[in-house]
């Protein structure tokens, strides 16, 4: 396992019930096996931190002003740039639900200059790269995004990249192993 063994779900502290609450979709879906048990098992070591972080992630997943496609483009670019295999595998698996094709998932690795992106999609990928590299979106990229997005959407872009960059840091630092249901669809 990783540097800190994940706590199995049956042994989670009671506070974890509230900590995972923000990750539940507002409209219940058909029951399925929870995803990300190794990550959640790591986070079970610190329920107050998990609760705080999941408030932000819950917003990004269910209340963001950008589309799920736009969010997933950003998350996958963060995962690719940070070589965060766990994050990549989880989001590559669900990208289709957000309207991202398998070809586009692989093209995300090539980045914003790859052929086939719309101007806005390329700007989103470039924004992720710029935020990860310089901690700010450059003027040219900003101009494209600001022409399409309202201020709240621009904020959601920045906070999506930041939140998933933080997650990539944690996943890599704690060496969280892939869950059994996540195969290496593509190695980062």
Main traits of this protein?
188 residues, mainly alpha
What is the approximate shape? globular
The DSSP helix count reads 9
Named at the architecture level, the CATH assignment of the domain at 66-173 is Up-down Bundle
Which stretches of 5+ consecutive residues score pLDDT under 50?
none
Report how far apart the termini are: 19 Å
Let me know the number of strands.
0
What would you give as the CATH superfamily of the domain at 66-173? AhpD-like
How confident overall, as mean pLDDT?
92
CATH class of the domain at 66-173: Mainly Alpha
- Find the structural class using helix and strand composition: mainly alpha
CATH fold field value of the domain at 66-173: AhpD-like
Strand portion: under 5%
The main sheet comes to: none
Helical coverage, percent range = 55-70%
Radius of gyration: 16 Å
* SSE sequence, one letter per element: HHHHHHHHH
């Amino acid at each position: 396992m990783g540097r800190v063994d994940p706590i199995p779900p049956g042994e989670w502290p009671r506070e974890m019930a509230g900590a995972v609450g923000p990750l539940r979709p507002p409209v219940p879906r058909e029951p399925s096996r929870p995803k990300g048990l190794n990550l959640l098992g790591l986070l079970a070591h610190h329920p107050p931190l998990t609760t705080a972080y999941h408030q932000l992630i819950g917003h990004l997943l269910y209340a963001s002003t950008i589309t799920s496609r736009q969010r997933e483009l950003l998350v996958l670019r963060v995962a690719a740039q940070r070589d965060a295999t766990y994050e990549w595998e989880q989001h590559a698996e669900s990208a289709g639900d957000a309207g991202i094709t398998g070809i586009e998932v692989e093209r995300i690795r090539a980045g914003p200059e790859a052929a086939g992106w719309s101007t806005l999609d390329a700007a989103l990928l470039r924004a992720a790269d710029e935020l990860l590299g310089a901690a700010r979106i450059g003027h040219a990229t900003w101009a494209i995004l600001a022409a399409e997005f309202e201020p709240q959407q621009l904020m959601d872009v920045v906070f999506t990249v930041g939140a998933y960059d933080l997650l990539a840091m944690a996943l890599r630092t704690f060496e969280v192993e892939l869950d059994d249901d996540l195969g290496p669809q593509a190695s980062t």
